[in-house]
Amino acid sequence: MNTALSFLAGLIFGIGLLVSGMTNPAKVQGFLDLAGAWDPSLALVMAGAIGVAVAAFAVAKRRHDTWLGSPMLLPAATHIDKRLIGGSALFGAGWGLAGICPGPALVLLGTASGKGAVFFVAMLAGMGVFEWVERSWRTS
């Protein structure tokens, strides 16, 4: 049951990304191009997503278990540090350069997009480099 519901949630999310244009790198880059030909249409998509997330987190904060019976595990960290700022800047730079972020990359991979496949491989490589650096810093 959990697997089926997870698949359904992912499918709905992926369809939403396709319908909203979030999987179109040119549309995303147009949204991020504040100094040029700015395309504000994705701002409405983000506003809608933020509204849904605010409502979902309000409900989730009052629960101890998910609707499927698993423990509710919400992020507890509230501290803004150099790692968070650096990671956010790196994520933003990658999103701006490629016009793709991890969720849409998975959708593009499923549509057999060449750009999506290249981004996905680069994303995995970046995750691997991060893990290698983290392990190196912990052991030194």
Q: Can you tag this structure with a few keywords?
A:
mainly alpha, 6 helices
Q: Any overview of this molecule?
A:
- The structure is a single chain.
- With 140 residues, the chain is mainly α.
- The chain has one domain (2-139).
- The chain contains six helices and no strands.
- The mean pLDDT is 90.
Please outline what is shown here:
The protein is mainly α. The chain is 71% helix and 0% strand.
Whole-angstrom Rg: 18 Å
Q: What is the average of the pLDDT values? A: 90
The major beta sheet can be summarized as: none
Order of helices and strands: HHHHHH
Give the CA-based shape.
globular
Domain count: the total is 1
Helical stretch tally: 6
Determine the structural class based on helices, strands and strand pairing: mainly alpha
Instruction: Please mark out the parts with pLDDT under 50 across 5 or more consecutive residues, or reply none.
Output: none
Assembly of the depicted chains: single chain
Distance between the termini: 44 Å
Number of β-strand runs? 0
Strand fraction band? under 5%
Helix-residue proportion: over 70%
Chart the SSEs and their pairings:
Elements: H1 2-20, H2 25-32, H3 41-61, H4 82-98, H5 102-110, H6 114-139
Helix pairs in contact: 1-5, 2-4, 5-6
